[in-house]
Design brief:
Pfam families: Citrate_synt. This protein is mostly helical. 55% of the residues lie in helices and 3% in strands. It contains 18 helices and three strands. It has helices spanning 7-14, 38-44, 47-56, 62-74, 83-87, 95-108, 121-144, 158-167, 178-190, 198-208, 213-225, 232-246, 251-259, 279-294, 300-312, 316-320, 328-337, 345-365, and strands at residues 22-25, 30-33, 36-37. β2 (30-33) and β3 (36-37) form a beta hairpin. The longest helix has 24 residues, at 121-144. The structure holds s-citryldethia Coenzyme A. S-citryldethia Coenzyme A binds at residues 194, 197, 228-229, 232, 257, 265-273, 321, 323, 326-328.
């Protein structure tokens, strides 16, 4: 078609890009994975089925889903030599640093999978990365606590296996409460993709140079780590804990944010695309109440979060800037209820986002007009000038 730009030509020259994976309408608060509303997927699907949908572009048949699940089980163990890498990290190393390094390391152990001529090399890479990201994350947690590694078990499904590797004792499996497993599966599903956000754009950028899938995912983890992006879920809880410790009911903190003197922001609020309520936040908020009730737990931070939301949504400062809760505002409450430590929250986000990154990697590398991304700039530096020897400088 005349004037039609391909996926790559658009990004390669302008920095914006077409994609067929996820649709967002920021004004209406709409999110669809491959055209299917997130609300339907939350109610009827699972993280592994949604991962297949995003990566393969369609809902799987029963046989396809079973084969995909078998591939994840087949690939869940790390190469034994990878354990030695963990020894090199200090105990206080942030798990996102470990995750990025170990994902790249994992890619070194399967060079045959990085060769396009190997049959099903992409599917095998995808299954290996999607399955092993969980094992790497759990091992990073165990290492940070000085605990022995707990290996995945083939009888456990995706989210259950992660909780098993995180919290089981080597000789006794942790009790995997169905409501806890379902809540984690929901979090992974809600984070699975989100169009051209900072970290996904990073994955696409790196993929356009021809780097392998593991290198692209490792770069995505680094971009996601920032507190303005995937690190916000950790920053939200640290903000709520600070408010709780101070005895403030939230109003003093909001005044500090509005004064702009400290540069503090209401973390978990605002979004570049959503100028309405993030549909994921609405779903997570509802599940916070349900999960805490089922686990017979309460969390004072949830009460503070709800008070902050109620006050902010009635406050002109936030209303005129169209600042609403985003995916990170309530997600940490669920992770706390699952006893996941706060520095692992961005890691949970990264595990959930892995299918989206894999899907976007595939979209870039399989594009018929694939070109390296090279956004142009507007030069605002000095005009032409000439070198001045050091003795003649002021
Ligand atoms: C994610 O892109 C994606 O899809 C990301 C994501 C995904 O799934 O991949 O949805 C995940 O990253 C969600 C966002 C998580 N980050 C946070 O919660 C951090 C807090 N929020 C912000 O810093 C901010 O809202 C961003 C980073 C999310 C969006 O930044 P923008 O669009 O660049 O907004 P901006 O910085 O231009 O702010 C516009 C105005 C400014 O005020 P003015 O200078 O116009 O007077 O709104 C203010 C900002 O000061 N503002 C906030 C605010 N966010 C924006 N003021 C107080 N608290 C906030 N949270």
């Amino acid at each position: 078609q005349t004037g039609y730009i391909t996926l790559d030509e658009g990004y390669a020259n302008t920095g914006s890009c077409c994609s067929a994976i996820t649709f967002i309408d920021g004004e209406k608060g709409i999110l669809r994975y491959r055209g299917i509303p997130i609300e339907e997927l939350v109610e009827q699907s699972s993280f592994v089925e949604v991962a297949y949908l995003l990566i393969m572009g369609k809902l799987p048949t029963r046989a396809e889903l079973q084969a995909f699940s078998n591939a994840l089980t087949r690939n869940q163990m790390l190469h034994e030599d990878m354990k030695f890498h963990f020894e090199g990290f200090p105990p206080h190393a942030h798990p996102m640093a470990i995750l990025s390094a170990m994902i790249n390391a994992a890619g070194c152990y399967y060079p045959e999978l990085l060769r396009p001529e190997v049959p099903n090399h992409f599917e095998e890479q995808a299954a290996r990365l999607l399955s092993q990201v969980r094992t790497i994350a759990a091992f990073a947690y165990r290492k940070s606590r000085g605990l022995p590694f707990v290996y995945p078990k083939p009888q456990y499904k995706y989210a259950a296996n992660f909780l098993h590797m995180m919290f089981s004792h080597p000789t006794e499996d942790v009790e995997l409460k169905p409501e806890a497993v379902r809540a984690l599966d929901l979090l992974f599903l809600l984070h699975a993709d989100h169009e051209q956000n900072c970290s996904t754009s990073t994955v696409r950028m790196v993929a356009s140079s021809g780097a392998n899938l593991f290198a692209c995912a490792a770069a995505g983890v680094c971009a996601l780590w920032g507190p303005l992006h995937g690190g916000a879920n950790q920053a939200v809880i640290e903000m709520l804990e600070e408010i709780h410790r101070s005895g403030d009911d939230g109003r003093k903190f909001l005044e500090e944010v509005k004064s702009r003197k400290s540069g503090r922001r209401l973390m978990g609020f605002g979004h570049r695309v959503y100028k309405n309520y993030d549909p994921r936040a609405r779903i997570i908020k509802r599940h916070c109440d349900e999960l805490l009730a089922r686990l017979n737990r309460t969390d004072p931070l949830l009460d503070i979060a709800k008070r902050l939301e109620e006050a902010a949504l009635q406050d002109e400062y936030f209303v005129e800037r169209k600042l609403y809760p985003n995916v990170d505002f309530y997600s940490g409450i669920i992770m706390r209820a699952l006893d996941i430590p706060v520095n692992m929250f961005p890691v949970i986000f990264a595990i959930g986002r892995m299918p989206g990154w894999i899907a976007h990697y595939r979209e870039v590398v399989e594009s018929p007009t694939r070109r390296i991304y090279r956004p142009r700039q507007v030069y605002v530096g000095p005009p032409l000038q000439h070198y001045v020897p050091i003795d003649q400088r002021g």
